[in-house]
Design brief:
About 75% of the residues lie in helices and about 0% in strands. With about 375 residues, it is mainly alpha-helical. α7 packs across α17.
Length: about 375
């Protein structure tokens, strides 16, 4: 499950080191080419909201297979796009169909004993983070060697192989929800209304994912310009640095099983704030950028895995819907953060990006502090058990 999660979530991030190559082919500004990064993230949020809840209603393995095959089609459309507009549409479609990791996580949680759930979620999340970060390294090299289209063709082949692996290895897992699709979607709003832990965890994640999206989108622009002037292959190597967060993921999850996972959320928010202080003073320092990447990726894992473990503990029969609320808003944060980062870049370059993201980190910490007393699970989920 961790391997499948990592390989499929990579579809969302292959485009980032390729922005310059795509801009050159279609003869558009690099900032305009960067729009495909947040269109992909926005598509992911759409897929999360409208498709992930179905995992509580239809058989999960069947849904995972259909969605994986749809990703293959989206990747082929991207690889063959003859205009930037078609590539934008393909990017949105690719985001929508790359929700498979968020279908796998509730499936894994439903198969796991409560005392092991944090560790299992952390292990699968480590696969997801490796996929996110190493996808940039892979696409940077492939783009430099064979062009940006080759990366999408290779990704289509990977997803096809994953399709057959899932078909053979994943267990059948039947849902518990008996209502209509309309009731399923309506229950999302009931969850938001009745679960304070869900509201708090989601809002913190929104601010943290926005920082993450803003950084990885604008970092390409920083490293491709003066004084670095790196090509796409070299820029992609920074994904390996970011994989340090993947090493922290199972440890964070295991800590959550033994104690209060909310504590790790606070430390994660603080690490992300420190990372942007480091980035502010690293406009010409590659060592500073590397240190900042380690801080931001370990920080995002501390926040995300701990919050996800807390959310999954609320209502077992509604895990897909809990995950829908939690992750759809989180990735809307990533999409908004990518657009926010590009805006800040145009406004004042790298320093503006660092300051703007530090403000988001402070907002996340503010939510964490203000919701300390109210962030207790609410057991009033009777409406959701139809």
């Amino acid at each position: 499950m961790a391997v499948c999660t990592g390989l499929i979530v990579a579809n969302l991030y292959y485009c980032q080191p390729l922005i310059v190559l795509i801009a050159n082919e279609f003869k558009i500004p690099e900032a305009s080419a960067g729009t495909i990064t947040y269109l992909t993230q926005a598509g992911y949020a759409i897929g999360l909201f409208f498709m992930v809840p179905l995992g509580d209603k239809i058989e999960r393995k069947k849904q995972i297979l259909m969605t994986t095959f749809a990703s293959v089609i989206a990747l082929i459309i991207a690889a063959t796009a003859q205009s930037f507009f078609i590539l934008q549409i393909a990017s949105l479609f690719l985001g929508i169909t790359s929700i498979v990791p968020q279908l796998i996580l509730p499936l894994a949680a439903s198969l796991t004993a409560p005392e092991q759930r944090g560790k299992v979620v952390g292990t699968i999340m480590s696969g997801l983070l490796v996929g996110i970060l190493l996808s940039r390294t892979l696409s940077g090299f492939i783009g430099q060697l064979w062009g940006w289209r080759s990366m999408f063709w290779i990704a289509a082949g990977i997803c096809l192989l994953i399709f057959f692996a899932i078909q053979r290895k994943f267990p059948v897992n039947k849902p518990q929800f008996q209502g209509s699709y309309g009731q399923l979607i309506q229950s999302l709003f009931t969850l938001i209304k009745t679960q304070p832990v869900l509201r708090e965890a989601t809002l913190i994640n929104v601010f943290c994912f926005a920082q993450f999206g803003a950084f990885w989108t604008t970092m390409v622009l920083l490293l491709s310009g003066e004084p670095f002037s790196f090509n796409s292959a070299t820029i992609g190597l920074f994904g390996i640095v970011g994989a340090s967060g993947a090493l922290a993921a199972p440890l964070v999850g295991k800590m959550g099983d033994k104690g209060n996972p909310r504590i790790a959320v606070g430390y994660g928010c603080l690490l992300m704030l420190i990372s942007f202080i480091i980035f502010y003073f690293s406009i010409e320092s590659i060592i500073g950028v590397i240190i900042g990447i380690v801080f931001i990726d370990v920080g995002i894992q501390g926040v995300h895995i701990s919050n996800q473990t807390r959310v999954y503990s609320l209502l077992p029969e509604a895990r897909n819907r809990l995950n829908t609320v939690f992750m759809s808003f989180s990735f809307l944060g990533t999409a908004a953060g990518s657009a926010y980062g590009l805006f800040l870049w145009k406004l004042g370059g790298w320093h503006a990006v660092a300051i703007g993201c530090a403000v988001l980190a402070l907002l996340a910490l503010t939510v964490y502090v203000l919701t300390y007393k109210s962030s207790r699970p609410d057991s009033s989920g009777s409406e959701l058990k139809k």
